[in-house]
Write a structure and sequence with these properties.
Keywords: ATP-binding, Kinase, Nucleotide-binding, Thiamine biosynthesis, Transferase. This protein is an alpha/beta fold. 37% of the residues lie in helices and 17% in strands. The protein contains 11 helices and 9 strands. It binds adenosine-5'-diphosphate and ligand LCLJCK34. Adenosine-5'-diphosphate binds next to helix 8 and helix 9.
Length: 284
């Protein structure tokens, strides 16, 4: 049952709580593992409703196990009832059954809760993460309910059913129901994100970091966007902040992790690492 509209975290001067409804990446680069790091980096409390487990590393996905639909709804209901949900990020869904469960779970949200949908289809290593028959369900059941959809260029082309460039794609996808669309720029020459809000097309530029590590950049972007909506930012400002955070996470990416494309780093892990063990460690 949908709860009534609750006061925003900003109005109440409390730490926003944001849920990631997404898949688990055992390699720690994308999915809920990435999302929780981003939530922490943005200063919001992170929560999860896991949709699928993936046995995944930087070179491939060995196995995928969907979570039972009633368990997906139960995870969202549990946190909605006690903690409250100030924004939602939706990532890997996988199957039609999972999409239907997530749609049901959205019924647990207070009216007006912002929802960010990253329509994950393929991993950076090339593995399919959305069954082809689930595409229509994602477009028809979920897209019309979201505040901001954040497809990358290939995902936007699948959803729009055209080979156009980002500005046209953003407009075509907006016509399918989301209130805002950001076509992310990692697959474009200049890594410029393109947003459409129903009236205006806005370019969100940024430096491309060709030598970074980008596994999980889409997850990082959509989580940062959801976190900033929970923090009270307007969608266009949240999208600008998400672009800065995702680009920095790619720049700082952990190229040395794994044999494939390394994970982004939204927490600045490299700079936190002690360069030498403390002297006391040698004494033992
Ligand atoms: N090499 C890069 N340099 C700078 N920003 C990047 C780079 N790759 C991705 N980004 C940014 O990361 C975010 C996610 O982009 P994208 O790669 O399109 O998503 P996905 O990971 O889903 O393919 C976007 O804001 C994009 O501009
Ligand atoms: C469990 C899981 N979810 C999502 C992805 C894909 O992550 P994303 O950040 O959209 O894309 P890449 O930057 O990794 O291409 C994943 N691999 N696993």
């Amino acid at each position: 049952m949908r709860a009534c509209r609750k006061l925003s975290a900003v109005t109440q001067n409390r730490i926003p709580a944001v849920i990631s409804i997404a898949g688990s990446d055992s390699g720690g680069g994308a999915g809920i593992q990435a999302d929780l790091k981003v939530f922490a980096a943005c200063g919001v409390h992170g929560m999860t409703a896991i949709t699928a487990l993936t046995a995944q590393n930087t070179v491939g996905v060995d196995a995928v196990a969907p979570i039972a639909p009633e368990m997906i709804v139960a995870q969202v209901r549990a946190v909605a009832r006690d903690i409250g949900i100030d924004a939602v990020k939706i990532g890997m869904l996988g199957t039609v059954v999972t999409i239907e469960a997530v749609v049901a779970a959205l019924g647990e949200l207070a009216e007006g809760t912002p929802i960010v949908l990253d329509p994950v289809m393929v991993s950076e290593s090339g593995a399919p993460l959305l069954e082809p028959e689930a595409r229509d369900a994602l477009i028809e059941l979920l897209l019309p309910r979201v505040t901001v959809a954040t497809p990358n260029l290939p995902e936007a082309r699948v959803i729009a059913g055209s080979d156009d460039d980002a500005p046209e794609l953003a407009r075509a996808i907006h016509a399918l129901g989301p209130r805002h669309v950001v076509v992310t720029g990692g697959h474009r020459d200049k890594a410029t994100d393109v947003m459409f809000d129903g009236e205006t097309t806005i370019e969100i530029p940024g430096e491309r970091h060709p030598d970074g590590a980008a596994h999980g950049s889409g997850c990082t972007h959509s989580s940062a966007l959801a976190a900033h909506l929970a923090l009270g930012f307007a969608p266009v400002d949240a999208a600008r902040a998400a672009k800065v955070i995702a680009a920095q996470a790619v720049h700082d990416g952990l190229r040395e992790i794994g044999r494939g494309p390394g994970p982004v780093d939204a927490l600045g892990i490299r700079s936190r690492r002690p360069l030498a063990p403390p002297a006391s460690a040698h004494a033992r």
